[in-house]
Design brief:
By secondary structure, this protein is of the alpha/beta class. The protein folds into two domains: about 5-120 and about 305-320, Nucleotidyltransferase, domain 5, CATH 3.30.420.40; about 130-300, 2-Layer Sandwich (Nucleotidyltransferase, domain 5), CATH 3.30.420.40. The protein is built from eleven helices and ten strands. A hairpin with a 2-residue loop joins strand 7 and strand 8 (about 155-160). Bound molecules: 5'-O-[(R)-(carboxyoxy)(hydroxy)phosphoryl]adenosine and zinc ion (ZN). Zinc ion (ZN) binds near residues 114 and 272. The site of zinc ion has 6 residues, from helix 4.
């Protein structure tokens, strides 16, 4: 087995078609073709449109990644690809492409769980990172706090009981008349507002590391409806700022609590919501106070990308975990 294997990563679980090449832990290229602007017209991802966009883009994005890395496909040691969770049709495009390539080149196929890809993004940021660490995972589909004990084993300490954090951002964005994907737009608007709109404290009442977003979302819908019905003035920016703080403060607090309780000295994070500047600051503050080391992936490696799939591919390659060519795509892979 190669010491610093050359691995191609492919990601197509939602609306980004992405490919990246790593040599060992060194990222050589990182390409992405997004259909998000097309999806924005529909206010969310339309699965069939996503699948077609992946079909159009997958060949080109892989060629770009190989070219930018300055390598030939014949030099690859393995192809890592997201097989779930995600939109089935979208996943099948990347998975089928990866299978064809692996078969044609006679190299291993490595099916990657998208969520483990988000966890692996931190290795791209800090080449010296080694378990154990506590991770805040906050994406459009999942929100959880995990304890990674070895490179391949993580325990879920807790997570959302209903909506994921990103989903809550997307829903609140819609209420505020902001386009899809909502997260970056809510963040931008929140910068102009103040945290003055009362938000439910129920998130804090839940025990352990679990939390809930559905009450927060309903509270905002009711707040806006009531203001509109009464014809009272209200500030979209203040609602955005108050929501952002209610939704994210708890994540930073509970993540640090997890690290302290488990006596783990390193905290990492991953998933689209971790691109949020306010959350990054909160994590920095909370980890600083608790004297914990914090590894935050670059923002472009928080939202969906293929570099993280290649990084997780490397971990599976080193563990000798290869997938059969019969591997099927999976719409959901439970976290626990
Ligand atoms: O990880 P990701 O790209 O895809 C999934 O695996 O789900 O996460 C997408 C989610 C979306 O809900 C999006 O609104 C949210 O991440 N997001 C953000 C920000 N950027 C993306 N949420 C809050 N603030 C951001 N800056
Ligand atoms: Zn993701």
């Amino acid at each position: 087995m190669e010491k610093d294997p050359l691995i191609l990563g492919i990601e197509s679980s939602c609306d980004e078609t992405a490919a990246a090449v790593i040599r060992g832990r060194t990222l050589l290229s990182d390409e992405i073709i997004s259909s998000a602007s097309v999806q924005a017209k529909y206010g969310g991802v339309v699965p069939e449109i996503a699948s077609r966009a992946h079909s159009d883009a997958v060949d080109e994005v892989v060629m770009r990644a190989l070219h930018a890395a300055g390598v030939k496909k014949e030099e690859l040691c393995a192809v890592a690809v997201t097989y779930g969770a995600g939109l089935l049709g979208a996943l099948l495009v990347g998975l089928s492409f990866a299978k064809g390539l692996a078969y044609g080149l006679n190299i291993p196929l490595i099916g990657v769980n998208h969520i483990r890809g988000h966890l692996a993004a931190s290795y791209l940021e800090d080449e010296t990172l080694t378990p154990p660490f506590i991770t805040l995972l906050a994406s459009g589909g999942h929100t959880a706090i995990l304890h990674t004990k070895t490179k391949t084993e993580s325990e879920v300490l807790g997570g959302t009981l209903d909506d994921a954090a990103g989903e809550a951002f997307d829903k609140v964005a819609r209420v505020l008349g902001l386009p899809y994907p909502g997260g970056p737009h809510v963040e931008k608007l929140a910068r102009e507002g103040k945290n003055t709109v009362p938000m439910p404290k129920m998130l804090k009442g839940l025990g352990g590391y679990d939390f809930s977003y559905s009450g927060l979302k309903t509270h905002i819908i009711n707040y806006v409806d009531t203001k509109e019905q009464k014809g009272e003035e209200w500030s979209r920016a203040d609602v955005a700022a108050s929501f952002q703080s209610a939704a994210l403060d708890i994540l930073a607090e509970k993540t640090v609590e997890g690290a302290l309780e488990r006596h783990v000295e390193t905290v990492t994070a991953g998933g689209g919501v971790v691109a949020n500047g306010y959350l990054r600051e909160k994590l920095q503050e909370a980890c600083g106070r608790a004297h914990l080391k914090l590894v935050l992936p670059a923002k472009k490696h928080c939202t969906d990308n293929a570099a993280m799939i290649a990084a997780e591919g490397l971990i599976q390659y080193e563990a000798g975990n290869f997938s059969p060519l019969t591997l099927n795509a999976r719409a959901s892979i439970p976290l626990r």
